[in-house]
Amino acid sequence: MKIATLSIAIAIWVTAVFTAAAQEKNEETLQILEQTKEKVTQEEKDALKVEVEAILEQQERNIITVEEAELRKKKAAEKHALNIENRLAIINNKIELLQRNGTDTSLDDDDRLVLSVGWGDRGDSPFVFLGPKNRQRPYDRRTTSDFVLAIGFNNVITEGQSLEDSPYKLAGSRFAELGWAWKTRVFQESNWLRIKYGISFQFNGLKPEDNQYLVDTGSETELQTYPIDLDKSKFRLDNLVVPIHFEFGPSKKIEGENYFRYDTHNQIKVGIGGYAGIKLAARQKLKYEVDGEDIKEKQKGSFNTNNFIYGVSAYLGWRDTALYVKYDLNTIFKDNPVEQRNISLGLRFDMD
User: Fold this and answer.
1) Residue 1 pLDDT > 50, yes or no?
2) Higher model confidence: residue 37 or residue 118?
3) Using CA atoms, how far apart are residues 137 and 124, in angstroms rounded to an integer?
4) How far is residue 104's CA from residue 91's CA, in Å, rounded to a whole number?
5) Parallel, antiparallel, or unpaired for β 212-216 and 321-328?
6) 206-241 burial by CB neighbour count: b if 16+ within 10 A, else e?
7) 307-324 burial string, b = 16+ CB within 10 Å, else e?
8) Is residue 239 within 8 Å of residue 280, measured between CB atoms?
9) Torsion angle, CA of 116/122/123/129, rounded to 10 degrees?
10) DSSP 31-89
């Protein structure tokens, strides 16, 4: 599944969540506004009462005459009656706007937050935005970011042997990578060179052939034959890495009235770089049958594997998809007499 399709699905889901939340918030706001109408009326009545009491006190102290006191009380009553009328009109207008538009449009456009789902500078890249309604488009966006998904085949290259001699199944051993990547244009006036960097989780799986499984003997980790028939034997390394690639390739400059962009979506892209990180876990799964009962055995430990991960990687891409290869320069097992290194080949989805 391509990243564009995934982004659309995420955008629809986010929109649904925000829409439901907005509807609930609107209902709460309507209730508050209705309660405020009663509060406004009572506030003005209380204010009128205080003002009338002050007028009567002045009358009793012969500061003002009875006629002047009556005139002042009349004016105070008219003032607070108009206050109630005007303040209620404002609230009623807000209620009508909220009911009609689903938001309080009496707010200033620069301050109002809106949720919008639209398309990127190319016109075919979906995005979800929550922010000011009249947000200005940045003149130049030198750094972009994207979700990374990679899947494919995984195996090992053993010292002095070819990949065909691998003791692991070629089609059954797989890898996956999930992460987030940023891409920054290197030069101010040119887009021929970009740096792509981020953080990723890598999952490298190996399935031994010939009913074998991995055993840590203390001095090394080796493949041994399991005493009964295995339905499944799988070893997996989980890593957290920071990949960095130099990306080359042509681009098309798009210029708008108040902005410009470099578009590489429909262009060939070549990335060359590497990664470094740490091992998070090593685990082995065995599945077999004993007396008609399915047994699933999960083993988690060091397996004498290296904790520091580093390697080289490259991709050749177009649109959202790229052919992706990565190779660990560190050996899988620390103390084995014969060195083995992980290699992966598959598809990567994150191009823009």
Assistant:
1) no
2) 37
3) 17
4) 11
5) unpaired
6) bbbeeebbbebeeeebeeeeeeeebeebbbbbebeb
7) eebebebbbbbebbbbeb
8) yes
9) -10
10) HHHHHHHHHHHHHHHHHHHHHHHHHHHHHHTTSS-HHHHHHHHHHHHHHHHHHHHHHHH
Closest CA to 170 of 152, 144, 191, 182: 152
pLDDT tens digits for range 311-333: 999 999 998 899 999 999 999 99
Strand partners, 208: 168
Pairing, β 340-349 against β 174-185:
unpaired
Joined tokens for residue 199: 């953080």
Residue type, 45: K
Give strand pairing partners of 210: none
Beta strands at 340-349 and 321-328: parallel, antiparallel or unpaired = antiparallel
What are residue 164's DSSP bridge partners?
none
Residue 88, φ and ψ in degrees, nearest 5: -70, -35
Task: Tell me the per-residue pLDDT of 152-182, one tens digit each, with 9 for 90 and over.
Answer: 999 999 998 888 889 999 989 999 999 999 9
Q: Phi and psi dihedrals of 43, rounded to 5?
A: -60, -45
CB-CB neighbours of 8 under 10 Å = 15
Residue from 159, 123, 170, 136 nearest 4 by CA: 123
Strand runs labelled E in 291-332: 293-300, 308-318, 321-328
